[in-house]
Write a structure and sequence with these properties.
The radius of gyration is 14 Å and the shape is globular. With 114 residues, it is an alpha/beta fold. It is built from four helices and six strands. The strands form two sheets. A four-stranded parallel sheet has the order 2-1-3-4, with helices on both faces. The chain has a two-stranded antiparallel sheet with strand order 5-6.
Length: 114
């Protein structure tokens, strides 16, 4: 099972959302057993107690866009949820561009450690 954050009103770039959906569409055509869930509203992740609770979830995808908007939309609860999932025994996170910044535990940005 793969979960993809795809809220274009929550910081995911329209191009990133389109590319990610096309990629997983291609992949599921090759492997019909693969299940992909698209999180289209940031509140879905924040309301979720824990991604770790979904034992079949193997990969969280955080696409590019605007990291600041993703952070504002998903909030600290959403980010903690992603980081906790990544630290779990079955959790894997694939993040690109702004999604990487959002999913990172911390990073250096223009002279500040965030």
């Amino acid at each position: 099972m793969v979960a993809v954050y795809s809220d274009t009103n929550g910081g995911v770039g329209p191009g990133s959302a389109k590319w990610t959906q096309a990629f997983f569409s291609w992949w599921t055509d090759l492997n019909p057993e693969l299940r992909v869930a698209y999180i289209t509203n940031a509140k879905q992740l924040d309301d979720c107690d824990s991604l770790k609770a979904y034992s079949k979830l193997q990969l969280w995808v955080q696409p590019g866009g605007n990291a600041e908007e993703q952070s504002a939309a998903l909030g600290p609860g959403g980010r903690d949820n992603v980081l906790d999932f990544a630290a779990s025994s079955h959790g894997h996170v694939y993040a690109t561009c702004a999604g990487w910044y959002y999913s990172a535990g911390s990073y250096w940005w223009y002279g500040d450690f965030i």
